[in-house]
Amino acid sequence: MSSVSYHISNLLEKMTSTDKDFRFMATNDLMLELQKDSIKLDEDSERRVVTMLLKLLEDKNGEVQNLAVKCLAPLVSKVKEPQVETMVDVLCSNMTSDKEQLRDISSMGLKTVIAELPLTSSGLTLTGSVCKKITSQLIGAMGKHDDVSVQLEALDILSDMLGRLSGALVSFHSSLLSSLLPQLTSPRMAVRKRSILALGHLVPCCSPALFSQLTEHLMKELAKGPPTSMTRTYIQCLATISRQGGHRVGEHLEKLIPMVVKFTGVEDDELREYCFQAFEAFIRRCPKEMSPHIATVTQLCLKYMTFDPNYNYDDNEEEDEDRMDIDDELEEDDEYSDDDDMSWKVRRSSIKCLEALISTRLDLLLSFYSSICPALLARFKEREENVRADVFTAFSTLLRQTRVASTGSRLVPATVKALHRQLKEKSIKFRQGCFCLLTELAHTVPGALEEHIPALIPGIVFSLTDKSTLSTMRIDALSFFNVLLLSHPPQAFQPHMQVLLPPVIACIEDTFYKITSEALLVIQHLVKVMRPQGQAGGFDPKPFVKEVFSVTMKRLKATDIDQEVKERAISCMGHIVCHLGDHLRAEVQAVLAIFLERLKNEITRLTAVRTITLIAASPLKIDMSPILPEALSVLGSFLRKNQRALKLGTLACLTALVTHHAASIKPAALEPVLSELPTLVDESDMHVSQVSITLLTGMAKAYPSTLAKISSSVLPGVFRLIHSPLLQGSTLEAILEYLQALVLSKTSNLSYSQLLKSLMEPFHRSQSSADGSIVHRQSYHSVAHCVAALSSASPKETPGTVAGFIQQVKNPGSPEAARVLALLCLGEVGRKGSLGGSKEVQGVILEAFSSTSEEVKTAASCALGSMAVGCLSDYLPFLLKEISAQPRRQYLLLHSLKEVIRSSSLSPHVESVWALLFQNCECQEEGTRNLVAECLGKLTLVNPAALLPRLKQQLKTGSPLARSTVVTAIKFTIVDHPAPIDSLLKDCIGDFLKTLQDEDINVRRIALVMFNSAAHNKPSLIRGLLGRVLPHLYKETQIRKDLIREVEMGPFKHTVDDGLDVRKAAFECMYSLLDSCLEGLDILQFLDHVEEGLKDHYDIRMLTFLMLARLVSLCPAAVLQRLDRLVEPLKATVTTKVKAGSVKQEFEKQEELRRSAMRAVAALLAVPEVERSPSMAEFANQIKTSTDMASIYQSIKGGEGGGIGATESMDMS
């Protein structure tokens, strides 16, 4: 006998002991053994363990029984199928026993076994056979009408089993339905409720025929007009199957809705509640099918949300009624309240139904303002606490939807009027609801509460000072006050400072740290209100300064307080010194000394750095000289720390000190800082480099003497940065300013010529250098900008430099890199206007256009555009003349013209440029045509009112090529920031989108590209046109046989699909619409086309997999409706294998396609309800059991930046 069997035998022997403690310990030890992964039982041990545990279920001691049940869980996976079946048989027969305790423990045992049955394919046979055994026994137990408790247990276990293993019970679904339906007529309410629950678990996985059978049965029973109690059950069952079965109820709604509407008229509150719950489920699960019934349901909700027959709301209460009257009224409420009154349930369910409507139907938002919004505002007086909370929730949902739709200022006055008196209610829950709602309102319509602030302040003060108020209520009030201060101008609060400050100051003294912390934040914003920077105000803060200072100082000095309070106290005091420092005089030095201490403390140092930055930049010119030497030394040490936020904060602080307090800082005090700066200028962190260079620029201006010391250590890093391919934007701007500061400092070893030489050096040696890749294209442009900046700082040196560049371009022996750089430098120097109209330069540029090198030609094109920007009158006529005269150089010259249009005001020359562009808009070369279109688009932005109608006119007159150019030009007028053209474009973009119906396929493709640009950058332009545009968009997603042709390539035939590019453009538009115009889409219709795309060409499938993953996160309910149709193409892609003899690219392509499909599958599997679909459950199982698919799935779940979220974006450039 093995050691395991011997040990188990010993335990089993102890379990037969008469001592209950022995039995308990032995069972516990057995459970620990069974939980070990390594344990293997022989057949005899399995049988004996199962027999013993089943015997222990009948033990007299309850604790032993419970342990025996727990042992069943690990045992299921350790024993073979016959033993599991034995366990199930015994448990099922015990469950129908007459002994109540044995019944209870056996049903617990069955639930434990069900929870442990394996879901993997290897264990499915065991699971299936066990489930069948349990199901047949349970169906028998349900028929045993004489004992209700047996029925209840059987229904409970059945619900558990269907919830977890419904897929394994498909063959039993029909008999389960037959046995569950009679239970709906049981005289016992508990039996009926559990039957409904079990039916709810059955619905997601059952066949459509069975679902229809269930729904029709319910409709047939309801049509008979059963007693009210039975009607309640059937309606409740309808709501449950709608919630669980989702879209499948949709096809029965035409018959169901009139029935449910009829039952809302029955005088029974619970029945009405269930009717509204059913409506809510229909609205959430079948939004499209509910559209015809929305008006009916809305009317019913509006009628019953005020249904309160036992109470008379007095609408004529005076606005200025004092608090006592309100208290009396609340006492009266109690007299009216009736324990048997269930009308609140009707009101609550109708309001929840309205909330479902608001959250699912963004398209009806405008009509909700006139219908639902006033009704909700009127219900703010609701007497029942829970119902009023739901009214607030529904109104908050309306506000959130309003924020999405960017309308809603009309809601403000009525909302404030309905809420402001309720801020003084006794009920904490009411007040919290009011504050949440007002916060939502402030976020939805920023600044709109300004004129209502006098009405809101008494409510805020009441919640802060009321003795009975809970701490959470105070925090909510302070939090709302904070939002109010941030979103409204200071002038709105200044008149009320006398009333507002005392309660907030009292909150700072509170013992609960959260309240203190919130109050300090409010004081920080109130200090800004007292004296806003940059505004000359008539408000005198003097009376309040001492009080605010002393209470904050007390918290600032304390060291035994919470971290959050410490940080808020530092920050608050910083704002006090920054805004009101001139009223504090002597106290400022004491505060600065404390800040220095906090700067040395690791926990508070970051907050202290930010606060010192704030004070240093204060317009009050606070004297910081006493702490500067020591502070600079500490700040210097922070630059060595490996904490990025601290490093950036320190650099910003040093820049503020050097800029505003240079006179108080001795150059020697900067030594600790200077020694740390060289290592920070590095391309590994561009932002830190930028802030470091800004600091160096400040030092160069304030302390030229320090430059000589650090130039040798810092400059190599700066030049490395300039030659880096990563340099651009604000970091480049910072470097330009630094170089100009160096030249202007007149330091001997940092002269113009030396800096110029260092900049140019890599370009002169790059050809001969062993490492030719040292110079990146971006660094040419960076160096050109730097040269122009140096020239503008040293105008005397410029002519010599320009002459040198011209020689360089002319000299055929110069390396290509040096000629390209010389041209770009000439361009940038010319942009600053330092060249004049030099004929020699024009000749050099024209000569460069004839170069054999593409790089030189492109640089010449860039340079000519830049020069023309700097001296329009000299270069633009020359440029236009050349475009007309030189058709072969047109592409390069148009690039120059594009630069001119982009960077300068062309007002006097618009007509001549416009005419020239239209002469070339029908060019055969697509690249040139696109450039003409871009120039036209950018030119239209110069004077949209005059030029946009002319573009529109061209649509009617031009050839297909001209139309495509005009539509592309419109694409370039759509910019991603607000522009004067927007309103004009919105009015006429519909005319340009009519080209989606053009007979020319290329024009249609370009129209789709333009539509995509609008959807991506400025969706407001096209939201109103979706109804007209979408049918044409969807039409372009279809494969057209007449556009597919066969091309013979030698012995091979190759299929060419001329419609592929148009389809790709259409699917890209669909993807953009998901992000920007979701509320305007009929998602189910949208999914039809996505489904077609899943079977299309490689490129389109890649797109539709992305779309599917996105749709899952945006509207899972709709995707679940179409799940069975979507699974097949996904499965087909994931399981496809490439033919053995295929080329490497084919393998890579297919692998990428499979990964993309698997991402969509992973997104689907993340939705909890997905595995209720039999086809999806089967597919998920297939993935788990296939090594190949499982590895792809795991790599997507675990790798690639943390799963699906990272893959949902698409390059829209």
TrEMBL record:
Q: Where are the HEAT repeats?
A: 49-87
Keyword check for Lipoprotein, yes or no.
no
Keywords for this protein: Repeat, Ubl conjugation pathway
In terms of Pfam families, this protein maps to: TIP120, TPR_CAND1
Record-linked InterPro entries: ARM-like (IPR011989), ARM-type_fold (IPR016024), CAND1/CAND2 (IPR039852), HEAT_type_2 (IPR021133), TATA-bd_TIP120 (IPR013932)
- What domain of life does the UniProt record list for this protein's source? Eukaryota
Q: Does the keyword Repeat apply?
A: yes
Q: Name one GO biological process term.
A: SCF complex assembly
Ranges for domain TATA-binding protein interacting (TIP20): 1021-1184
What does the similarity note say? Belongs to the CAND family.
* Protein name as annotated: TATA-binding protein interacting (TIP20) domain-containing protein
- Gene giving rise to this polypeptide: CAND1
